[in-house]
Amino acid sequence: MQNDIIEVFQAYANQLEWTFSYGNKENQNLLQSDLDDSKIYLILDPVRRNKTFSEFGATRQKSFSGSFLLVVKSTIDQTYYNQTEEERFINRISVLDGFFSVNNSCQSTQYKAGKYNQNIKPLIETEIVKLEDIINCSQYKIDEWSIIDATDIFDANLDGIVVNFKLSVI
Predict the structure, then answer these.
(1) Over the stretch 72-103, which tens digit does the pLDDT of each residue have?
(2) Which of 123, 120, 121 shows the shortest CA–CA distance to 131?
């Protein structure tokens, strides 16, 4: 049984064959941009350790709260969600305050797999569920678990999810 929550998260990542990293956001941004496209990365931010005490000073409950990223390597110019190549181009030009005209006589529009379907959705539907199952069968109880999508994180250009959590020791 491990008592250090950082080592616990590292053990979970190892069990799931994910790459683990721990530290503050400034240091995490130093991840190399040549990360492996086929790997999943669990990037844990500094964790808050909480204790509650009884009226007699005994420890009543220990808990841990914080956040982590569950991410994969991405491509910065990939669309977010089911945009056509034309829409992506239009969005990029509009951001630059440009103007252009497109004549498209094609009946079918080509959609590219976007960041959400390719990178984020599999993490939500499959990978994070594996971690939840491991935690639920451990000495910890999930008190809070909040997930939000994230794209183009850090200089390494990662897509995935941010998980805010609170775990209690059972």
Answers:
(1) 999 888 888 877 666 655 555 444 444 444 44
(2) 123
The DSSP 8-state label assigned to residue 110 in this structure reads P
Pinpoint the alpha helices (H) of 65-166: 85-95, 115, 121-122, 128-136
pLDDT at 106 over 70: no
Could you tell me the domains of the chain? 5-77+115-169 (3.30.2000), 79-112 (no CATH)
Spatial distance between the Cα atoms of 154 and 170, rounded to a whole number of angstroms: 35
Query: To which residue do tokens 């994910």 refer?
Result: 18
Axis-axis angle for helices 128-136, 5-15 (nearest 10): 120
Q: Are 83 and 112 in contact (CB under 8 A)?
A: yes
Residues facing residue 118 across a β-bridge:
none
From the centroid of its chain, how far is CA 9? 14
* Mean pLDDT, rounded, of the chain: 85
Using the predicted structure, report yes or no on whether residue 20 has a pLDDT greater than 90: yes
Tokens of 131: 């971690």
